[in-house]
Amino acid sequence: MLEIKDLHASVEGSEILKGITLTINPGEVHAIMGPNGAGKSTLSAVLAGRDGYEVTQGSITFEGRDLLEMEVEERAQAGMLMGFQYPVEIPGVKNIYLLKSALNAQRAARGEDEIPAPEFMKLVKEQLAFMKMDPSFLQRAVNEGFSGGEKKRNEILQMLVLQPKLALLDEIDSGLDIDAMKVVAEGVNSLRSADRAILMVTHYQRLLNHIAPDQVHVLINGRIARSGDRHLAEELEARGYEWVTEEESAA
Amino acid sequence: MSLPETLVQRLNGAAEAGPAWLAEQRRAGAARFEEVGFPTRRLEEWKYTDMSKLSAADFGVADSAEFDEALYDELKLDIDAWRLVFVDGIFSPRLSDLESLPEGVTMAPLSQALSDDQQAVREQLGRLTGIEFSAFSALNTALTGEGALLRIGRGRALDKPLYLLFVSRRGDTPVMSHPRILVDCEQESEATVIEHYVGQQGAANLTNALTEIRMAKASRLSHYKLQEASQSEYHVASIQIDQGRDSHFTSHNLNLGGAVVRNDLMTDLNDENATADFLGLFFGQERQHIDNHTKVNHNAPRTYSNENYKGILDGRARGVFNGRVYIKRDAQQVLGYQNNANLLLSDRAEIDTKPELEIYADDVQCSHGTTTGQLDENAIFALRARGIDEQMARGLLTLAFATEVMQRIRHTAVTDRVERTVAGKLPERFNLESLVEESR
Question: I want to staple A82 with a disulfide (CB 3.0 to 4.6 A). Which of A48, B32, B200, B289 is the partner?
Fold first, then answer.
């Protein structure tokens, strides 16, 4: 589904990603972990299509398409959605407008008609209930005045409504209390299916207690230093990133 | 200045109508208007808005309030309110509704008040806005005969708005009307007044409204002006408020229609703790011209004002914002804030924005800011990252820009109307109309 090959990327002329190779297949859940400064947020930004990040070498393909040639909105329409670490407040834009126009954009890209209003309301209300959110939320502005937990829940709600093929979750656990963490994790786990994939980027192992990954990758200094199953995360938790860093420099 | 014979006759004719005290004011208004004529751009106050092509001789006067019921249903706000309806300036008892208006509250068409409650009219008409204010106030005084008298008695708190609807019809010849609205808020009263001006498509009339509002100690008034004249109409309105101690006035000045529009909104904060909030939105497209002049006079210490006007201009539309804040000598500890933000959606749209602060006290906090501008790129990115194309993302943010000044409005009939109208008028590339229609 997603294939990253020898990806090099720079920010303002300095190279941050130095050759990342990673393949994610349908049905898989991957976690990328790493210390601060390893390049986690640069990788997220490149995948999301943010300005200011220059890919100098390598490629990313999403379902056979060259992702780097796709506009930000095309990526989402094709089924790749990013759950942001810091969701933006958008005063005055109601959540219902965002959800509905996003869903219809996706349908239009697939050559489908707009969703009928009653069907849309039914779908949204089910997902709101699942995320333990009040329907009045739909008439509120996107993330405006929301707590950190509410913002993250909103990111997941958008995923549930838009049903991405590949969900990218950038530090989705940051700023969450225990209860909110549980709701968010339940939302993410409900997305798991044989034809969908999830890529989590996180600094902390504790997220993986709630959302169990199939594969864990350790990102150090712009490269994947080590990959393994979920036990790798536990080992990291016990021994710290230094352990991998030292082995990396020894090698 | 020589005026067309027909207008002179009309002015003279109107001057003879009604009680003697009114006839006197009318004669003075007529004389004043004959002297000054419609304003030209040589006048500083009319620098950006050319009214000199206007000729009162081009307008007739309506003689009936007959109106198609179906069209009326479409134009009015769907709101639970006490209501007076005027068609081309003529009162329509059939469309009005004053059922179970509480005791201690007056809501009457001016024509009726002039016969039933003449003293109340006399006490207020022309006391705040005189014939010297402008050619239009002079003309209004000379020719008015209709409008409304509103009085909210001491301590009364109304649970429904007082709704004044002025409908402008498309007719064989354009007509002019000069509504005069008098509002008296007695001590500790609370009310909402909605002035709604709406034009049938193609109507080419002149509306020249004048509102005078007295606010006694600790009264509260939420005032809405929703202007949806047709895009071929002239609309001129002035609203003058006189505020007593602890009074709180909120203005929602929402302008979506009109070919040439001029609004003057002015308050005098005459005693301590009087507060005025001025919130405004103007949206112009094609060749619309919308001029907003506001003035806040802090005449006493510890008086407060807060003003936020937003403009969106498309096509070759032109907007004007001229906001004046005056602080009298020794009116200390005043807070006066003003902001005007504008969005231009086309290269040929234009905004002239001019804040004016005039301060004669040293212990005050004042600020003003104007921006013409830019949408939040982070927000555009966030919307695009959900699959929404860039044009629609910009449309959503433009609509959000417009609705921001309405956040405090609890009357959804008003906010829905404005939101739908703006969504419908925004460029088609934004593709918002059905989204907003279906998401209610």
Answer: A48
Question: Are B213 and B238 within 8 A, CB to CB?
Answer: no
Provide the ipTM.
Answer: 0.94
Q: Which residues of B touch A170 (CB under 8 A)?
A: none
Q: Quickly state the pLDDT bin for A250 (edges 50, 70, 90).
A: low
Q: Which two tokens stand for residue B194?
A: 């909605």
Chain B residues with CB under 8 Å of A50 CB are 381
Which of the four pLDDT bands, split at 50, 70 and 90, describes residue B54?
confident
Evaluate whether the domain defined by A2-250 bears CATH number 3.30.365.10.
Answer: no
**Alpha carbon distance A162, B324 (integer Å):** 49
Q: B385–A109: do the CB atoms touch at under 8 Å?
A: no
Question: CA A143 to CA B151: how far, in whole Å?
Answer: 42
Chain B residue at shortest CA distance from A141: B400
Task: Centre a 10 Å sphere on the Cβ of residue B15 and count the other Cβ atoms it contains.
Answer: 21
Residues 6+ apart with CB under 8 A from B34: B1, B3, B8, B11
List Cβ<8 Å contacts ≥24 apart for A230-239: A233/A31, A233/A33, A233/A205, A233/A208, A234/A205, A236/A33, A236/A205, A237/A205
Evaluate whether B282 touches B290 at the Cβ level (below 8 Å).
Answer: yes
Separation between Cα atoms, residue B401 and residue A91, nearest integer Å: 8
Q: Domain residue spans in chain A?
A: 2-250
User: What residues of chain B lie within 8 A of the CB of A160, using their CB?
Assistant: none
- Ramachandran angles phi, psi of A101, nearest 5°: -70, -35
**Residue B36 φ/ψ, nearest 5 degrees:** -95, -30
| Nearest in space to B436 (alpha carbons), one of B397, B401, B396 | B396
CA angle B284, B286, B291 (to 5 degrees): 35
Best B281, B376, B381, B383 member to test A by mutation, with max A CBs in 10 Å, is B383
Contact B192, B144 (CB under 8 A): no
Interchain contact, B383 vs A141, CB within 8 Å: no
Tens of pLDDT, residues B396-411: 999 999 988 888 888 9
Residue B322, SS3? Answer: strand
